[in-house]
Amino acid sequence: MTPEVLTPGTWTAEKVLEFIRERGIAYVDFRLVDLPGQWQHVTVPAAEVDLDTFRRGVPFDGSSVRGFRGIEESDMVMMPDPAAAFVDPFTAAPTLAIACDVYLPGARDRYERDPRFIAQKAEAYLRETGIADQSWWGPELEFFVFDEVRFGLGPNEAFHLVDSAEAAWNTGRPGGNGYQVRHKQGYFPVAPTDTMTDLRTEMCDELQRAGIRVERHHHEVATAGQAEINFAAGSLVQTADNVMAYKYIVRNVARRHGKTATFMPKPLYGDNGSGMHVHQSLSQNGTNLFWDENGYGHLSQLALHYIGGILYHAPALTAFTNPTTNSYRRLVPGYEAPVNLVFSKGNRSAAVRIPISIASPRSARIEFRTPDATANPYLAFAAMLMAGLDGIMNGIDPVALGYGPIDKNIYKLDGEERARIRSVPASLEESLRHLEEDHEFLLRGGVFTEEFLETWVDLKREEADAVRLRPHPAEFALFFDA
After folding, report:
1. pLDDT above 90 covers what percent of the chain?
2. 434 part of the active site
3. Structural domain of residue 256, as residue ranges?
4. I need a surface site. Which of 3, 39, 409, 455 has the fewest CB within 10 A?
């Protein structure tokens, strides 16, 4: 069966049911997102799906979903959103995948910890403020494609190994072709050095069949198969839905070819990590509120205040935009990583960059470069929007607070000037402390709740402890003979 393109946001329950009948769909896969940001699913024969399914939902056990409910209150319901459906290209039987919202049984209230609900509340809060009626999001996800991945943990051992035929360390292997990608030189040579053009193109084909408009793809800077595929910007929830589908499609196309894709920010030592640069803007009645032909970087004062909110709250934001211990292996000062809490028209080490190569009233936007794709997109986008709105409502001036603009090479600044530039947190534990101290802006409009934030911090502290308490192989190399 040739998958049909379903345009996100345009489908009703009736249209989905008609599509199922006309296209011979055999199964419907209902999906929800857990707190860390991974899809969970249940599959139902298409013959069992009708309008009542969209009205009553599909029951599931919430106690088995990370960050949801305890076993004593585990009954929950996922309500399918017909506007978020696409044909799954990886199943043997024709299957339609549908993203769902999470509800409590009985009264059928929305579940406060559902990340999709938090994103929907952020969009509603934006409209309530009267500042804008729409936010636009264009994340750029980077990832690695490896030929082999091995890792193991035990009380007496810990190891990992990744490999790629195009990796710099494989120039000496038997049967090599001499076209391995040098460290930090993967951006972006043609074949035969770039071995993954066809693989990325196939990923793009599947993304487009799923209704996601692809703009470009290319090899990224690092050796060993680092890649990037860009897709068109959209509204907050729609774009978060697209990120979930994007990661699913990238992983499974790689698997189709016996390879494995990862969005882990720093799987390699000594080479570039993978980020998720997030372009964002606000509009009202179709007019881009970030544009000002005479402003710095063609940005309006409203956009500068939005930047002020992002940079002021960035230490707390990283708890959502960079939510793993591995995130901070990438965010290291002195390298290309965007750790500096400043804004700039061109400096890619700045946390906020203003794209100006094709500046226009339609395209004016900011780019927050710190995030990575281990983020739950619903939570990360919602948190960024709330920080930006706080900057607008409180008139946070990034210039007055010393956040730039800085258009010079930050690494060549003198010591005193360099010392005035703040950096993002150096660890997940530090970012969680900042979130505990600075989260009032997230609570406005009931978008986030204290209970949710406490749950998130507890979940992430458990992950941080799992890494912090374990002996590291490098410690044996450094200290075994101490």
Report:
1. 84
2. no
3. 134-473
4. 409
Total number of domains constituting the chain:
2
* 234 in a structural domain: yes
Residues 164 and 19 placed together within one structural domain of the fold: no
Annotation marks residue 367 as catalytic: yes
For residues 80 and 34, give the distance between their C-alpha atoms in angstroms, rounded to a whole number.
15
Q: Is 170 helix (H, G, I), strand (E, B) or coil?
A: helix
150 is catalytic: no
CATH number of the domain enclosing 302: 3.30.590.10
Active-site residue (options: 31, 116, 369, 439): 369
* Mean pLDDT of the chain, nearest integer: 93
Query: 274 with 265: CB under 8 angstroms?
Result: yes
Q: Is the peptide bond before 192 cis (omega within 30 degrees of 0)?
A: yes
Active-site choice (348, 418, 470, 472) = 348
Check if 48 is active-site: no
Name the active-site residue from 81, 228, 271, 292.
Answer: 228
Assign 2 a pLDDT band (cuts: 50, 70, 90).
very low
142 is catalytic: yes
Q: How far apart are CA 456 and CA 343, in angstroms?
A: 29
55 labelled catalytic: no
Residue 407 is predicted with a pLDDT of 82
Kindly name the residue from 113, 217, 251, 277 that is annotated as catalytic: 277
| DSSP three-state, residue 75 | strand
Point out the annotated binding site. 140, 142, 215, 220, 228, 272-273, 277, 279-281, 330, 336, 348, 367, 369
**Has 414 been annotated as catalytic?**
no
Band of pLDDT at residue 409, cut at 50, 70 and 90: confident
- Are 302 and 421 in a shared domain? yes
Burial 427-440 (b: 16+ CB within 10 A, else e): bbbbbbbbbeebbe
- 107 lies in the same domain as 139: no
